């Protein structure tokens, strides 16, 4: 039973990682396309529509939040590993757990504060696209939630590495 729960958490984490990678790539492509259109418009026509800059900025916000979730999943976030490389066994697992808990705390702040921000700005419209700014700021709680899931899964990884008899008391 416990193994199936851990396996389910890993499958959810992997699925979220795949979705973040796909949507992150889509937003990156949109940024490249919009920036190219903006440069071409300025160069050839001497004019660039203002909504192109907004698309670029909003896509960048979403791409950063989704990319952060991918980095947390792959353990690629910034770290000073001078001390970590000297740690072995249980000390290293404890350190990794503390790092994941710190990231989880930040992710939960993003989630809670992002939801509060959305409730404040949901009626505000972006200047050029005239869409609700809630869609833009939704990147914060969505990213925070996905990062939190990835952190919880990383914390559960410690249980996956142990033999089945060690999981009995979990």
Describe it for me?
With 170 residues, the chain is an all-alpha fold. It has helices spanning 2-45, 50-73, 89-121, 133-137, 139-160. Helix 1 (2-45) packs antiparallel against helix 5, helix 2 (50-73) packs parallel to helix 5 and helix 3 (89-121) packs antiparallel against helix 5 (139-160). Residues 163-170 have low confidence and may be disordered.
Give a quick account of the main beta sheet: strands, pairing sense, barrel closure: none
List low-confidence stretches. 163-170
The H/E string reads: HHHHH
Based on CA atoms alone, the radius of gyration comes out at 20 Å
What structural class do helix, strand and pairing data support? mainly alpha
Distance between the termini: 11 Å
The rough form would be described as elongated
Average pLDDT reading: 87
Beta-strand percentage range: under 5%
Helix segment count? 5
Tell me the total number of β-strands. 0
Residues in helices, as a percent range: over 70%
What's the structural blueprint in terms of helices and strands?
Layout lengths: L1 H44 L4 H24 L15 H33 L11 H5 L1 H22 L10
Task: Throw out a few tags for this protein.
170 residues; mainly alpha; 5 helices
